[in-house]
Automatic annotation (TrEMBL), chain A:
Family to which this protein belongs: Belongs to the binding-protein-dependent transport system permease family.
Top-level lineage group: Bacteria
Alphabetized InterPro entries for the sequence: MetI-like, MetI-like_sf
Record CDD domains: TM_PBP2
Gene3D superfamilies on file: MetI-like
Protein name listed in UniProt: Putative spermidine/putrescine transport system permease protein
Species of the source: Cryobacterium psychrotolerans
Main localization category: membrane
Transmembrane spans: 67-93, 105-126, 138-161, 182-201, 237-260
TrEMBL record, chain B:
Annotated organism of origin: Cryobacterium psychrotolerans
Protein name per the record: Spermidine/putrescine import ATP-binding protein PotA
Pfam family, one: ABC_tran
Record-level GO BP terms: quaternary ammonium group transport
Basic and acidic residues bias (residue ranges): 366-377
Family label: Belongs to the ABC transporter superfamily. Spermidine/putrescine importer (TC 3.A.1.11.1) family.
Gene Ontology cellular-component annotations: ATP-binding cassette (ABC) transporter complex
Gene Ontology MF terms in the entry: ABC-type polyamine transporter activity; ATP binding; ATP hydrolysis activity
InterPro entries: AAA+_ATPase, ABC_SmlMolc_Importer, ABC_transporter-like_ATP-bd, ABC_transporter-like_CS, Mo/tungstate-bd_C_term_dom, P-loop_NTPase, PotA-like, Transp-assoc_OB_typ2
Residues covered by region (Disordered): 363-383
Record bears the keyword Transport: yes
Protein's job: Part of the ABC transporter complex PotABCD involved in spermidine/putrescine import. Responsible for energy coupling to the transport system.
UniProt keyword terms in alphabetical order: ATP-binding, Cell membrane, Membrane, Nucleotide-binding, Translocase, Transport
Lineage of the species this protein comes from: Bacteria, Bacillati, Actinomycetota, Actinomycetes, Micrococcales
């Protein structure tokens, strides 16, 4: 008697989950058909198919320039935030010092602080230091936002790391830096790699801060998209959105598979 | 087996070595030395300071006071990676991302040995621990016993003059422990390295060691060979921690050349002992040195105590009897399989033993029952 009922509930659960998944993913996925329309305006469902908006994207220097800026800033942020965040996570997990909790809270604050507040503050600061509209300015601003996303996974990896391995390396003759490079880092690599990915993605799709610190000479892709959507409703923006979606999806999947494989090898 | 890897072990000297954590003293001014090539075991219950001492020798724990000398030279300024010691950890501590071969080669890599030399030494070390053909495996593909052999190979591959072992067999089951003990003993004999071995397992200490230092509450109770500790324990703690002991409590009294212990109903004699006369003391006898005699016969001469057998424990090659004495304390008697008497649990019996098998030691704890009454004059049994 219970079995068919159980099966029915299981089916209902699946259906519910599928609906939630669709609800979450549909708004993102809708940009794909939008970008492939043959009309010069947003039309859904599309009435005809064309790749002209992709051609348009790649032939317009301002779009390609924005994409290039985003990739460049994203890559630099990934490097800066990963190095700083890994060092911070190591310090927070390895040592006990006065005010440790405060330091940790400050480092993680950008994750909860209202971005608009951070943006206004940075704008005032960058105005004085001439960093507005510079790559350096973007990298600094985005790294601040990305730092918590590195610190959290690296801290988790370091907490799961057996510190006796470091003692073993030391007694084998490895100094602290060699031990970190040859033993600690390879073993916490999954956390560091996720951190780097999160940092890149945080920078790549950041809008609010970027709107404040952009200049006509340096715009990241989301800024350019925002400017474009307020000026004209040209489906090129849907093509850009699809590119961002594709890039982040590919990055996330590769990293997930890489980490899963590493864990299997272990 | 390889001639080149035979190294002379180093001498280790600990002078008033002390480690304090805040107000707590983990290691309390210990003096200890290991001869070159010696197998020295630090034996004690958990929290007795043995592992802290080992970690100070390795350089993982800072010394509060005192010094550590290796071949007469202080090592306080050297970080662990410059002490050139080998160490085997309780939980193997193999690098999980490296193959067995790479794990064993790791110390050689740090010493920048050429690749060809490395290969030869790694093969040599794996041979010594009986894992010659597992070089390409990953650690997680090995059993616990195999992993510990790899850890041992990694610790001996660069022929360190000191090898430290921190309960290396603690995570393994009994059978495996026994066979690895014999291998460690063989490897020690082969290498000539000074071994400092930490364990809480007294059997292991007896099997392996040239000398044993018994730790208790941050201090060393006694240092000596297995035989010294078993046959001539110098404190009650040692008597109880190394092997089993039966204790008869009372007050120490002088008795001719030897010592005695007096309690309200009897005086027992021992040929040896260092307890101060009049102080609370215990007369210590190993259970296998005590004979059980039926109470019906004539009263025995010499050391004799009345008791009642509470229970018997059958052990195959022997049986153990737990006997309750008149003062309520309990002692153990061991009868080997060939000498089992007819006495059963519930029987009243005489326990007898020879004075030369007994030693009188100062007891820190007060005896289990009231001291001899004031009006009681020491009476020595006649011999």
């Amino acid at each position: 008697m219970r079995k068919p009922a159980a099966r029915m509930w299981k089916g209902a659960l699946w259906l519910f989950c599928a609906l939630v998944a669709l609800w979450l993913a549909a708004p993102s996925l809708i940009v794909i058909p939008l970008s492939l329309t043959d009309k010069p305006s947003f039309s859904f469902p599309p009435t005809g198919w064309s790749t002209r908006w992709y051609t348009n994207f790649f032939q317009d220097p301002s779009w390609v320039g924005a994409l290039a800026s985003s990739l460049q800033v994203g890559a630099l942020v990934a490097v800066v935030a990963t190095i700083a965040g890994t060092a911070a996570a190591a310090a927070l997990t390895r040592s006990a010092f006065r005010g440790q909790q405060t330091v940790k809270a400050i480092l993680l604050a950008p994750m909860i602080a209202p971005v608009i507040v951070v943006a206004v503050g940075l704008y005032a600061l960058f105005l004085r230091t001439n960093l507005l509209g510079t790559t350096l300015g973007f990298v600094i601003a985005h790294s601040v936002l990305a730092l918590p996303f590195v610190i959290i996974p690296v801290t988790a990896s370091l907490n799961g790391f057996d510190r006796r391995l470091e003692s073993a390396a030391a007694i084998c003759g490895a100094n602290r830096w060699t031990t970190f490079r040859q033993v600690t880092l390879p073993l916490v690599a999954p956390g560091v790699i996720s951190g780097a990915l999160f940092a890149f993605v945080t920078s790549f799709d950041e809008v609010v801060l970027s709107l404040f610190i952009q200049s006509p000479y340096l715009q990241t892709l989301p800024v350019k998209m925002y400017a474009s959507v307020t000026r004209d409703t040209d489906p090129t923006i849907a093509a850009a959105a699809t590119l961002i979606l594709g890039l982040t999806t590919v990055l996330t999947l590769t990293t997930t598979f890489y980490i899963a494989r590493r864990n299997r090898v272990r | 087996m390889s001639d080149s890897s035979i190294s002379q072990g180093a001498a280790i000297t600990l002078n008033k070595l002390t480690k304090r954590y805040g107000d707590a003293t983990a290691v309390d001014a210990i003096d200890l030395n290991a001869e070159p090539g010696e197998f020295l075991t630090l034996l004690g219950p958990s929290g007795s300071g043995k592992t802290t001492t080992l970690n100070m020798i390795a350089g993982f724990v800072d010394v509060t006071e005192g010094e550590i000398l290796v071949d007469g030279k202080p090592v306080y300024a050297l970080p662990p990676h410059k002490r050139n010691m080998g160490m085997v950890f309780q939980h193997y501590a193999l690098f999980p991302h490296m193959s067995v071969g790479d794990n064993v080669a790791y110390p050689l890599r740090q010493r920048r040995l050429p690749k060809s030399e490395r290969g030869r030494l790694v093969a040599d070390a794996l041979n010594k621990v009986g894992l010659a053909n597992l070089s390409h495996r990953m650690p997680r593909q090995l059993s616990g016993g195999q992993q510990q052999r790899v850890a041992l190979a990694r610790a001996i591959v660069y022929s360190p003059r000191v090898l430290l072992m921190d309960e290396p067999l603690g995570a393994l089951d009994k059978k495996l422990r026994d066979s690895l003990q014999l291998e460690i003993k063989r490897i020690h004999a082969e290498l000539g390295t000074t071994f400092v071995y930490v364990t809480h397992d007294q059997d292991e200490a007896l099997v392996l060691s040239d000398r044993i230092a018994v730790f208790n509450q941050g201090k060393i109770e006694q240092v000596g060979s297995a035989q010294d500790l078993y046959e001539r324990p110098s404190t009650i703690f040692v008597a109880q921690f190394v092997g089993e002991s039966s204790l008869f409590h009372g007050l120490a009294v002088d008795h001719g050349a030897g010592k005695g212990v007096l309690s309200s109903d009897r005086t027992l004699h021992a040929h040896r002992g260092d307890a101060r006369t009049g102080a609370p003391a215990a007369l210590v006898v190993r259970p296998e040195r005590i004979r059980v005699q039926s109470i019906d016969g004539t009263a025995p001469s010499g050391n004799a105590v009345r008791g009642r057998i509470l229970q018997e424990i059958y052990l195959g090659n022997s049986r153990k009897l737990e006997v309750e004495l008149g003062d309520g304390s309990k002692v153990l008697v061991r009868e080997s399989a060939g000498d089992v008497t007819a006495n059963r649990p519930g029987d009243l019996v005489w326990l007898t033993f020879r004075a030369e098998d007994a030693v009188v030691l100062t007891s820190n704890e007060s005896p289990d029952r009231p001291q001899a009454a004031d009006d009681h004059v020491p009476v020595f049994a006649s011999h």
